[in-house]
Amino acid sequence: MQEWYDAIKSADTIDKIEEIRIAVFGKKGVMNAEFARMKDLSDAEKGSFAKELNIHKEALNALLLDRKLFLAMEHLEASMKAEAIDVSLYSPSSERGSLHPVMETMDRIVEYFLAMNFSVQTGPMVEDDFHNFEALNLPKYHPARDMQDTFYFKDSMLLRTHTSPVQIRTMLSQKPPIRMIAPGAVFRRDYDLTHTPMFHQVEGLVVEEAGKVSFANLKFILEDFLKTMFGDVEVRFRPSFFPFTEPSAEVDISCIFCGGEGCRVCSKTGWLEVLGCGIVDPNVFKAVGYENVSGYAFGLGVERFAMLIHRIGDLRSLFEGDTRLLEQFR
Amino acid sequence: MIVTKNWLNEWIDLGGVTTDQLLKTFNSIGLEVDRHEVLFVPNGVVIGYVETCERHPDADKLSVCQVNIGSGIRQIVCGASNVRAGIHIALATVGAELPGGLKIKAAKLRGVASEGMICSSKEVGLPSTGEGIMILDASIGELELGKNLNEYPLFNDDLIEIELTANRGDCLSIRGIARDLRAALNRPLRECAKNENQDRLGIGRILQLHHNETFEADLLFGAVDVKDFPVPFLLTLRLALIEGAYATAVDAVLLYATHSTGVILRAYPFEKFGDQESKGMITLDTDENGYAALYGKEKVSVIGVSQEKEAHFTQNEGLAIIEASYIAPDIVSKKMGEKKVPSCPHYYRTSRGSEPKIDMGIGYAMSLLEKFSSSQVYGGNIELLSSYEPRIVSMSEEEISAFIGMNVDKTTITQIFKNLGMQIGKPKGSTFAISIPQFRHDIINKQDIVEEIVRMVGIDNIPSKPLHFSEANRMGEDLNEYRKTRMYRHRAAQSGFYESVHFVFNERAQLEKYGFVCTEEDKELLNPITATFDTLRPTLLLGLLNSASANVKVNQKKIALFETGMVFDPRRNESKRLGFIVSGAMEGEKVSNAGKPSNTDFASFVQLISNVAGSFELLPHTPTHALAHPYMCAKVMIDGREAGELFRIHPNIEQEFDLAQTFVCELNTDSLPYGLVQAQPYSKYQASSRDLSLLVSKSISYETIKSVIEKHASQQVRRFYPVDRYVSEALGDQMSLTLRFVLQSDEKTLEEEDITAAMEWVLNGLNEELGVSLR
């Protein structure tokens, strides 16, 4: 019997196990042969013989099953091992595209003002003098027109130099109260390291009844907005001049690169200029026929925001469709 | 506008004000600081006096000078051409360290010992004052030999450049800025002392003024008999700081006086108006362009605009007539708008508002001439002054606080306007009446008044307050349009495209070469910025092609870009488009494609576009432009409407742009669906599919086959689509086209015979109409 134990233990394939099973437990197998020997034994011997044989039968059977299970597992393991891959070869680089940093920044800006119950308004890029200048308190020959080098067409139309004409169009077509932003492309005849002939602005306008809108309100929303966009920054207002607002201010944030210590980006001042704003000039309301109203307006350059937020150094790279820049925004 | 702290200090007492405080104050009152530079001559650079100056024995261009620095004589070898005995100079003594790190040591120059260096302005870190060394004079203060230069205010100063807004002509001078600081710092101005010398010849003896009409301009004339004099060093250096250009010493003095006071000053030679025998005559008249002009024997100047070239006082000596003028900026700039004439540098000031206090300006200029030269100033002035009625703006305390959003008390308001040089009466009730002086032509209405208060109070001191506004539903059509575009942009990015932004400008010649119709000639851009951006784009594709090409040049293998933007038709009407370009590899190089990704082909490009735009149909198309491959060009149909084009770029153009096989698509966003989906009922019964392999002539387009099938298909044919196309030599002019049909009924699961019957219908129809048979 012992030889069968050894045979099972040394069997190394499932087929071999099956052969042994037939040799031991098959019709013509060892077991049956042994049991057949019983008839030649005395009754006294029969009992102990059968008992011993049954013990072997069970033990061999258990050993057989055990060995079979073991070999099956070993086989599975081997076949899985054969399928092994080096997962580290397959770290993907995403094949997704991306949104342009300027457009994505514009989306974020719009999102903020939508949450503040502003409407979104758009207008044409090809504008006339009235909407782009005259109605915005920029009469012809006003020196402030020098501030904005304008693209003109042969028929005296022009490319809007700011999104402010959308304010005028909105005020002319709607009644106060007004609460709007105008996101869009604008154009100035300037092309160097820090200027492109086209860039994007978001302009905001709020008009309510007279005496209701104050400079303090303007400060509130812009401080909140800038903190939403740039995180925990300090916000500073400096009096300035825009023809369409009075009083006017330029708004700075503490430099996000040096934390206000002074660095190359902020020209050692610790501040970055990001916005222009003010209380709407009465001449603007007069131009659109509004009476007894008050309001504020603000405007910002989206490229500037995008460059600061995403640490993009070169303005012109934003208009080159260069995959090396764009793929970083996946 | 460039100022220095010490220059300002001559017009307002800045004692105890630190530079930081000053810079902060400028920013807070709306005078934006653009640049700040410390002007500081290093220690060890001292005043010296050149006792003797002799030619170096071994070098033609070097001089050997004995320089007295009070504590002793130093021998200095100097290479400057303007060094000579008897002048005061700046000597960098041994041990001094100059900007740029040059350490002064005792040395031998061509065998002659030299104990220091006589300095030019650049060598001590100041702007250039011309060729050679600085020749110092008492204009910088009393000259004490051996005293460090940096103990003189001129050499220890702060340069501050202020970016002035267009409305603040009143701050285009040192005195003007001092005046604005007066209110912010609450300190008095220093007025220049009038030097009334009684023994002077009266100007009336040599000059008289004539005018025929009344003009809205102020004029004041003085006369001075100029004796040759060098430009005082104080003026030389300060004019160098402000980059002022001048030809003569008189020019320098007038330029300096104008920068100091803001008053427009000009000098004419007396001969323009008269001669030794006869009195000079100045006539004020309207010139041929309608401007107020001055005439002597001929026209000499246009007030506030220009001076005739030959009417400049260009000599170093002789009798000069000095003119101070003021003309209101709105008058002169309006005139310039109506009829543009050439203008001189003064026009920048006059169009923004020069200083109206012209007697102060001319008085200052004359006192400088007297101080720095032996020139004889004539007594008195000849003047023509128009009357100025000050504007009165009335405003109540409540209005002020409503605009600002905080209360400012009456005393503060009164103090602010007094300090700004404006008259303010005692408030009646809560109403103030403020009288606006001539130099603040920018203050017209109540909000201008508020601005002054805001400036002086400081915006940082205004509290932030949320606005209680009128609630309204503000979701309009424009927002809807914005959101729609945004949705498609997000889809494009998710589908592997990079968003790009291009200028709306294209090159007309390039567009025309490719057969695009450009902006009509009479609506074309008048002043394009470059030749390559000389027209408005009628398509997004050229910008995308240029970008794709640029990407190839930096070795990008897989290019997929999109853009949403406006394009312009020939009449300049704007419409929004969504454009795509794909060129080169379909995916990145990786293990799974053995480093050789296949190139994007027509089918995979169409799939990409459809991932963004949804389902559409492609129809054969011949475009009006020449960008397209003539046999791989489709019209995109969405819901039966033409939505745009999709095509491969013409191989010649691919080559021109260095591009591999390149596909583009441009869609009108108007044609793209956006809105809510309406669900349709759908059958609960099993659907079956059947394939038909048809033998079809190659010349028949699938579109034709499709329309025949649609005509003959029973209601149970729910969908059908091509799944295989096979051509071989054996098939000749024919192709095998396999279509898959999906059949389904709303009432039951279809039996085999139902399906066969439905397919028979289709096949019969195809056979009858197109001669198509089963393969």
List keywords for this structure.
heterodimer; A: about 325 residues; alpha+beta; BirA Bifunctional Protein, domain 2; seven-stranded mixed sheet; two-stranded antiparallel ribbon; 9 strands; about 40% helix; rod-shaped; B: about 775 residues; Phenylalanyl-tRNA Synthetase, Chain B, domain 1; OB fold (Dihydrolipoamide Acetyltransferase, E2P); Phenylalanyl-tRNA Synthetase, Chain B, domain 3; 6 domains; five-stranded antiparallel sheet; 18 helices; 36 strands; elongated
Structural class of chain A: alpha+beta
Mean pLDDT over the residues of chain B: 92
Q: Please tell me how large the radius of gyration of chain B is.
A: 42 Å
Kindly state the number of beta strands of chain B. Answer: 36
CATH fold name of the largest domain in chain A, please?
Answer: BirA Bifunctional Protein, domain 2
Highest-level CATH class of the largest domain in chain B: Alpha Beta
Let me know the CATH homologous superfamily of the largest domain in chain A.
Answer: Bira Bifunctional Protein, Domain 2
Find the structural class of chain B using helix and strand composition.
alpha+beta
Fold-level CATH name of the largest domain in chain B: BirA Bifunctional Protein, domain 2
Envelope shape of chain A: rod-shaped
Oligomer: heterodimer
Taking pLDDT < 50 over at least 5 consecutive residues as the criterion, the unreliable ranges of chain B are none
Termini distance of chain A? 71 Å
Q: Rg of chain A to the nearest angstrom?
A: 42 Å
Describe the structure in your own words.
The complex is a heterodimer of chains A (330) and B (775). By secondary structure, chain A is α+β, with helices and mostly antiparallel strands. Chain A has 2 domains: 2-85; 101-329, BirA Bifunctional Protein, domain 2, CATH 3.30.930.10. Chain A has 11 helices and 9 strands. Chain A has helices spanning 2-10, 14-25, 30-37, 43-82, 101-115, 129-132, 164-173, 215-230, 282-287, 302-310, 323-326, and strands at residues 119-120, 126-127, 158-159, 178-187, 198-209, 235-242, 245-254, 271-280, 293-301. In chain A, the strands form 2 sheets. In chain A, strands 1-4-5-9-8-7-6 form a 7-stranded mixed sheet, with helices on both faces. In chain A, a hairpin with a 2-residue loop joins strand 6 (235-242) and strand 7. The model of chain A has no long low-confidence stretch (mean pLDDT 92). Chain B is an alpha+beta fold and 775 residues long. Chain B has 6 domains: 2-39 and 159-185, 2-Layer Sandwich (Phenylalanyl-tRNA Synthetase, Chain B, domain 1), CATH 3.30.56.10; 42-147, OB fold (Dihydrolipoamide Acetyltransferase, E2P); 203-384, Phenylalanyl-trna Synthetase, Chain B, domain 3 (Phenylalanyl-tRNA Synthetase, Chain B, domain 3, 3-Layer(bba) Sandwich), CATH 3.50.40.10; 391-459, Phenylalanyl-tRNA Synthetase, Chain B, domain 1 (2-Layer Sandwich); 478-671, 2-Layer Sandwich (BirA Bifunctional Protein, domain 2); 688-774, 2-Layer Sandwich (Alpha-Beta Plaits), CATH 3.30.70. Helix content of chain B is 25%, strand content 28%. Chain B is built from 18 helices and 36 strands. In chain B, a hairpin with a 4-residue loop joins strand 4 (63-68) and strand 5 (73-78). The longest helix of chain B has 19 residues, at 752-770. Chain B is elongated and about 130 Å long. The termini of chain B are far apart. The model of chain B has no long low-confidence stretch (mean pLDDT 92).
